[in-house]
Amino acid sequence: MENTEEDPPVDFESLESPHGLLWTLFNRKGKGKPNGKKLPTEEKKHYLDSEYTKVRVVDFELKELVVLPREIDLNEWLASNTTTFFNLINLQYSTISEFCTGDTCPAMTACSTTYYWYDEKGKKTKCTAPQYVDFVMSSVQKLVTDEDIFPTKYGKEFPNTFDSLVKKICRYLFHVLAHIYWSHYKETVAMDLHGHLNTLYTHFVVFIREFNLMDPKETSIMDDLTEALCTPLPPQPQNHVTER
Fold first, then answer.
1. Residues contacting 211, CB < 8 A, separation 6+
2. CA angle 138, 201, 236 (to 5 degrees)
3. Who is most buried in 34, 48, 51, 105, counting CB within 10 A?
């Protein structure tokens, strides 16, 4: 396995947002969840099958959602979007968390990559996938709720390290998405949430590309999926109703 080392808020309940329905479905506890133990780790990349990649929850250009609006401060925009993605990816993972255990996922893997966690003292730790995700969500939660890093009060400045911290957060969140695709895609399909996952992944990738928040080498393990999802879908035939 390859070793990889680490160094305005959105109304989620609004069904008009691309992820609004996702929020609603997450609150339907237990509905449609597959029974039994977690299925074997993906050997074939089923998430690349065209029958799955064409499934989305929106049919408009997601790039329009990430472009910096006029007269909006860049750091404010990065903070708002980063916090939103943290919440959405945390929710997406929660749908398969019962299948992501120390037994089924003894390491945090995606494709041929194993991710290691580095604590605040720089100590390298190999941990199970659920432990890694817990470390990610806990550390990101701590950052996005810190007023000195993600200020919410008018006039308060962002720290000089803000850009690097946002990049670090995005890197962690990408690892979680990659693991869901690699190890838990079948469960996601069984719950009919792959359209939401595809939309969330595409939205996130378009965002990090727009603001150069990740080195392309770090996202290369998912390049095949990125190409499949970021390629515009062919226009769908429209139904025309004729009045009589």
1. 66, 78
2. 155
3. 105
CA pair distance 189, 46, nearest whole angstrom: 10
CA atoms in the 13 A half-sphere facing the CB of 5? 4
Annotated binding-site positions for Zn(2+): 100, 105, 179, 184
- CA distances for 240 relative to 57, 86, 236, 237, 243, angstroms: 22, 40, 13, 9, 10
pLDDT at position 1 is 44
Q: What local confidence, expressed as pLDDT, does residue 230 receive?
A: 83
**193 within domain boundaries:** yes
pLDDT at position 59 is 60
Give 233: exposed, middle or buried? Use CB within 10 Å, 0-12, 13-18, 19+.
exposed
Answer whether residue 69 is part of any domain: yes
On the CB side of 99, how many CA atoms lie within 13 Å of its CA?
24
Rounded to whole angstroms, the Cα distance separating 166 from 129 reads 22
Domain assignment of residue 69, given as a range: 13-28+41-100+134-230
Query: Using one digit for the tens of pLDDT, what is the confidence trace for 14-35?
Result: 434 555 544 444 444 444 444 3
Residue 126 lies inside a defined structural domain of this protein: no
Contact 163/74 with Cβ under 8 angstroms? Answer: no
Annotated binding site: 100, 105, 179, 184
**What's the pLDDT tens digit per position in 116-175?**
999 888 889 999 999 999 999 999 999 999 999 999 988 899 999 999 999 999 999 999
Q: What is the pTM of this model?
A: 0.79
67 domain-assigned: yes
Overall average pLDDT of the 195-210 stretch? 94
Total domains in the chain come to 1
